[in-house]
Amino acid sequence: MPATANDPRTSRTRSWWGWGYADAHPDDAECAALGALLPGTLTRPLPIPRIADLPIGRPAATPPPALAHLVTTDPPTRAAHAMGKAYRDVIRALRGRSGRIPDLVAHPTSDQEVADLLEWAGEHDVAVIPFGGGTSVVGGVEYRGDAHRAVLSLDLTAMDRVLEIDATSRSARIQAGTLGPLLEDQLRPHGLTLRHFPQSFEFSTLGGWLATRAGGHYATVHTHIDDFVQSLRVVTPAGVGTSWRLPASGAGPSPDRLFLGSEGTLGVITEAWMRLRERPRHKASAAVALPDFHRALEAVRAIAQSDLAPANCRLLDPGEALLSGASQDGSSVLILGFESSTSPVDHRLAAALDIARAHGGHPEPPTTDRDAPADTAVGAWRSAFLRMPYLRDGLARMGAVVETFETAATWDRIPALIDAVRSEVATAALKATGHPATVNCRFTHVYPDGAAPYFTVAVAGRPGAEVEIWDEIKAAASDVLHRHRATITHHHAVGRDHRPGYDGQRPEPFALALRAAKNALDPHHVLNPGVLID
Amino acid sequence: MPATANDPRTSRTRSWWGWGYADAHPDDAECAALGALLPGTLTRPLPIPRIADLPIGRPAATPPPALAHLVTTDPPTRAAHAMGKAYRDVIRALRGRSGRIPDLVAHPTSDQEVADLLEWAGEHDVAVIPFGGGTSVVGGVEYRGDAHRAVLSLDLTAMDRVLEIDATSRSARIQAGTLGPLLEDQLRPHGLTLRHFPQSFEFSTLGGWLATRAGGHYATVHTHIDDFVQSLRVVTPAGVGTSWRLPASGAGPSPDRLFLGSEGTLGVITEAWMRLRERPRHKASAAVALPDFHRALEAVRAIAQSDLAPANCRLLDPGEALLSGASQDGSSVLILGFESSTSPVDHRLAAALDIARAHGGHPEPPTTDRDAPADTAVGAWRSAFLRMPYLRDGLARMGAVVETFETAATWDRIPALIDAVRSEVATAALKATGHPATVNCRFTHVYPDGAAPYFTVAVAGRPGAEVEIWDEIKAAASDVLHRHRATITHHHAVGRDHRPGYDGQRPEPFALALRAAKNALDPHHVLNPGVLID
């Protein structure tokens, strides 16, 4: 298996074509066992693709001598920076249909080097794709088209230090290229934590989280990374800027909020002061089986509209609960978790369980351990959660079409939205493949005024047509979201894949303002072309 | 007394030159009594100014017949729209130095009428000053200079309805011109509340709160109106846009966050879907006397860094506590309040009081009444809070220079910042007046990573030179904030008065982006010229 990126922290090898660590991928036998669960898939897994088979040509641009030491052109590095980690990326790699391989990969170590690279790229018509951990699932780190002379993947992971800690204000200045585990490693000795744990935590960076407005650990209140930002440092082709470290401000529109979610189109976030927490001392979690899904929705709404503020509040629909092992009897399962660094949380869990009971729920006994035993619903869900992307890739090797998408909508729309997504996406999948599809739903984050449903689709593909099938299903999904006025993404960004949905959702005056900002900050239009705006 | 604006809800008359209701102003005897508290002030109050003495000329522009019915040119209405309600505005009115009187005041009743007025203004070089309740304290609703042919004050208060309520998602679609009390009146029958209660609540509008990122009722967590916005509708010269109603989204930079805080420079917010709450059923509050101010700061930081989330957490320094009647013995006083619509809050108050005790605090007995008795510190503080702007105007009539300013900074900077502001502002005031100044401090909002100190300055002026004196003091205050990297405003906006501080604080790439957005949305540069950007 071609090894392309060693993880210096773990000494494990990261996969260039699939999720995570290469040694964690299901082997051929496991793939076959997974495929057997989905009628119509292949009988043998697709072979693991080889870098040697990729169409990697000579780089179409050469950096100047002063920048040459930052730039790599070896095929494994270029291959590992060609695409993100969506199902669409994995199946393209498996089918020998990779996206355009970047000409160059740069690993700058300072703001000045980032600025120098941007300047050179602007002068030489080289597209620049900012790259953190490369876990985009929306085509956010891939060049499409041929409007530029060459493509440079700007990998920030050499900028991976916590530079400063202010324990009094519980905050830290952190370089954008810091991967999740390395970030927490550097905070742990200080008793502090960012507690931003997306599913991609091991393989994604602070800068990526900020540029994409990633959703994190907390199911309620401060759900997005945005809320933990005290200050941003951004290098743009038009200059460098750092916002002041402030707990809050009312001085004009928030400068940080323009760059949060800008996905590398306006500038490169190189560092941020982030708000931290003390590590939690009190924890309690429990799972509740809820026989009726629509009553389960009401239970979750009631909890979201209380002031109990659970850290975890994941509702799994019956299919999702079955798949993760949290329930076998057709119930929905609600996973509740509370945590605090200052006060016991048992009474908050008890109050939430009372609400769930009032909606027909049957709680499991609460667990207070960090690692809930695997034979509890909480434990089963947690291990399935971390394993899921690997299983997706195993199913992809069996020719399955397996992907997730997520959204958010106000409570008044939620029941009809979920019903419509389930039915229309299943219909589209059946039409595209001739096979029955599974469409499951869970909630990742909830709010007093709405929820963020997260859907999983799985269906056997037609050999060689998996990309087109997924594109059809995704178009149907985007269409139903649009008709229900549900956002094209709650926390996975827009990238290139969500452009039609995003363009239809974004208010036109904001589109005008964003284009104008882009022209002002990136006058040569080299920053992540095709993402968010043209 | 010239009556210019009748409040239809209360049948009371609002003052055109001073704060609030004309009948709530201190009379001459009360003014004299107030002046006696501040050595060096006048012996008799300045007379109340008369509209007849204002230099109100013929309007320099005439709207087309189709818009004529929306436009008023009578002197009282024009006078009442000439300035905001800062000390600087009041003393200018008292000294016959009013800002430029607008030529026209329009009261549109629909988005289309707003759009038509903007179109006409753009074509005829008429500056448009969006106007809600007119309580700006930063020169936000006043035209300065003479770059435009005429000035139109765009008063939104005819758009004052709650248009739609979604009880399931606890949210409402509300017109931007709705004044605070009218807004709550329309929500009350539904058991819902926005609970945004700035000091200006009676006299300011939803649209004004949104355009200026107003600070509200909650001392912690969701402190600004920004966090309660689900969707905005904005009319710009380049078109109308409405963001989708969403509980959260990760689709690109937040469109709403660009218009929140844009202070009428990018467009006119005409309505918003706002997140509401059920009215609180559980309340508890208490005051704590803290003999040592620096230990009091530590107590507040500990509470802010807990997860107790008080709704009120106001620290009054000894001077402020004395002034409001909350303490007479030189102690600082911490006012704590908790509220919830779902759960009892007594244990949260008890936990916060434990923290305060550990820092040397002596709690008063807790009160659970909404209206704490006036003889408690909580009650004394609350009545002083609402009366304060009226007393400021009374002191202004005695020739005093009395004003507030506020900021926010991270905890590591807070002690040195407060000491520096007290000392440097008092020095500047003494230098400018020859009189000793009072400089008090309180906290209005607190965060895990910092606090928002709010300062009050009072000093006797030199007759006729009060404006220049205040400008000197304000420049000194802005300078010390800048050197300590404390924001020029936490919740009072930038307007025209804060421009130097804001320009020095705003990161340059964001300034470029904001200017570009302005050019795209307001190509004729008629929207609130001079605010935020040139």
UniProtKB/TrEMBL annotation, chains A, B:
Claim: Signal is one of the keywords in the record: no
Sequence ranges assigned to domain FAD-binding PCMH-type in this UniProt record: 98-279
Pfam families, sorted: FAD-oxidase_C, FAD_binding_4
InterPro entries on file: Alkyl-DHAP_Synthase (IPR025650), FAD-bd_oxidored_4_C (IPR004113), FAD-bd_PCMH (IPR016166), FAD-bd_PCMH-like_sf (IPR036318), FAD-bd_PCMH_sub1 (IPR016167), FAD-bd_PCMH_sub2 (IPR016169), FAD-linked_Oxase-like_C (IPR016164), Oxid_FAD_bind_N (IPR006094)
Entry keyword Oxidoreductase: yes
Classification via SUPFAM superfamilies: FAD-binding/transporter-associated domain-like, FAD-linked oxidases, C-terminal domain
UniProt keyword annotations, A-Z: FAD, Flavoprotein, Oxidoreductase
Family: Belongs to the FAD-binding oxidoreductase/transferase type 4 family.
Record-given protein name: FAD-binding oxidoreductase
